[in-house]
Design goal:
Radius of gyration: 26 Å
GO molecular function, one term: metal ion binding
Oligomer: single chain
Strand content: 5-15%
Strand order of the largest sheet: 9-8-7-10-11
Pfam family, one: NAD_binding_1
Number of helices: 15
InterPro entries: FAD-bd_FR_type, Fe3_Rdtase_TM_dom, FNR_nucleotide-bd, MRET, OxRdtase_FAD/NAD-bd, Riboflavin_synthase-like_b-brl
Shape: elongated
Largest sheet: 5 strands, parallel
Number of strands: 11
Main location: membrane
Structural class: alpha/beta
Number of domains: 3
Cofactor: FAD
Distance between the termini: 49 Å
Length: 445
């Protein structure tokens, strides 16, 4: 049988990720300038410490609103930047917010204490008792301190996701308290009708984006598509594929390489969301996920009954062919990280080389499918087996298997240690960063 392939799509002239990132920076910079303008227009207090404190407070409010946009899971941003990077930016911005609000509090308290000729603690108590909105601000800052503490790497690694997420939800309480504090005491907020309209607009857009991306869009898509489990197929002793069908799936904007947050609506698992990427390119009729038993949630998939209702949030992720800059590709998979790689191989155009890294042949799930797709598309497939030492994907080995590696897009997915090692190898081989595509799939806050 002869397979005729369409010519590969031309490389993207303007990288979508660059466009989205630049747009975010430009919007943030423009808002920072507007905040400075309204701050100057409102006039300055006689105490320099109070002036600095108010400015930090305003920028703290702006950063807080920006944080909401980063985790709103808006499709346009998510497909161009990716959930993992947006979540990482959200985390870094969170620590920026913490220090900004700390500076706001310190400068304001010491500024008013200096004017009243009292100590900072006395002044803090006096402000909380006499000034509307200050007590709410103290509670909001306390919540942000707690969330910042549990989000530090040391604490985050030792907390269950459910515990961390429950604590993190209190951030929304802090947002409401901070907003009402700003309305009550900020002279800049009410200095002019334009300033008031601006700040209501900022918070309206931020909260609107959050409601749209995290609530309205998932509810609308699940109501429209009515996802259900249509088949459960064991792939190995600890890996299973789940097939999901629904209505009008040809109108679901899912791409090979993307993931969903899946909630299987059983009595004991309906509350738990698990991020699994698609293990086959969407065909308009069926979605397939393939998961390894790594916990109670993923292990329970093997016993899922056909007909089980599914609540799927997504599709999410920028790990797609949208970001290609070269006409030829290298796809590197490790372990169960083969799932999005297998989907991308099915979807990708142009010559591709696939490296599948596993400990032994029996760990190579979906290998037969990879082989059949590679044969049909004229791709090269290499199964790389053996222990982690020596490194089977070291620079010398990659250069041997793929001599033109620097001229290819590289799609990478696998366990974090393997991905880190391969990224170092690609750096040593001088593969340009814009040609390296990967995502670290995890739940976003």
């Amino acid at each position: 049988m002869t397979t005729v392939q369409s010519p590969p799509a031309p490389p993207t002239a303007i990288r979508p990720r660059v466009v989205a990132r630049t747009s975010l920076y430009a919007v943030l910079a423009a808002n920072a300038a507007v905040v400075a303008y309204f701050f100057a227009q409102a006039g300055f207090a006689s105490n320099a410490l109070i002036v600095i404190g108010r400015l930090f407070g305003l920028y703290g409010a702006l950063v807080m609103a920006f944080q909401l946009v980063l985790v709103a899971r808006l499709p346009w941003l998510d497909r161009r930047i990716g959930m993992d990077r947006l979540t990482s930016w959200h985390r870094r911005t969170g620590f920026t917010l913490l220090w900004t609000l700390l500076a706001h509090s310190v400068f304001i308290i010491f500024g008013y204490a200096e004017g009243a000729s009292v100590g900072p603690i006395t002044e803090l108590v006096d402000l909380a008792e006499t000034t509307e909105g200050v007590l709410r601000a103290i509670v909001a800052f306390g919540i942000i301190l707690v969330v910042g503490a549990v989000s530090a790497r040391y604490a985050r690694r030792r907390l269950a996701y459910e515990t961390w997420h429950f604590i993190h939800l209190y951030t929304y309480v802090a947002v409401v308290l901070a907003f009402t504090h700003q309305v009550a005491v900020d002279t800049t907020f009410t200095s002019s009708s334009a300033a008031t309209a601006y700040w209501y607009g900022v918070w309206g857009v931020a909260l609107g984006a959050l409601v749209l991306g995290r609530l309205a869009l998932p509810l609308w898509r699940n109501t429209r598509h009515q996802f259900r489990v249509s088949a459960v197929v064991p792939e190995s002793d600890n890996v299973v594929s789940v097939y999901v069908t629904g209505k009008d799936l040809d109108r679901l904007p899912a791409q090979a390489g993307q993931c969903f947050l899946w909630r299987f609506l059983t009595r004991d698992r309906w509350w738990q969301a698990n991020p699994f990427s698609l293990s086959a390119a969407p065909d308009g009729h069926t979605l397939r996920l393939t998961a390894k038993a790594a916990g109670d949630g993923s292990a329970a998939l093997r016993h899922m009954k056909v007909g089980t209702r599914v609540f799927a949030e997504g599709p999410y992720g920028a790990f797609t062919t949208l970001h290609r800059v070269r006409s030829e590709s290298l796809l590197i998979a490790g372990g169960v990280g083969v799932t999005p790689i297998r989907a991308i191989l099915e979807d990708i155009e142009g010559h591709a080389v696939v490296l599948y890294r596993v400990s032994s042949d029996r760990d190579a799930v979906l290998y037969d499918e990879l082989r059949d797709i590679a044969l049909a598309k004229g791709a090269e497939l290499h199964l790389v087996t053996g222990s982690p030492v020596p490194d089977r994907l070291a620079p010398s080995e990659l250069a041997r298997l793929v001599p033109d590696i620097a001229d290819r897009d590289v799609f990478l997915c696998g366990p974090p240690p393997m991905m880190n090692a391969v990224l170092r190898s690609l750096g040593e081989l001088n593969v340009p960063k814009q040609q390296i595509h990967f995502e670290r799939f995890s739940l976003a806050g």
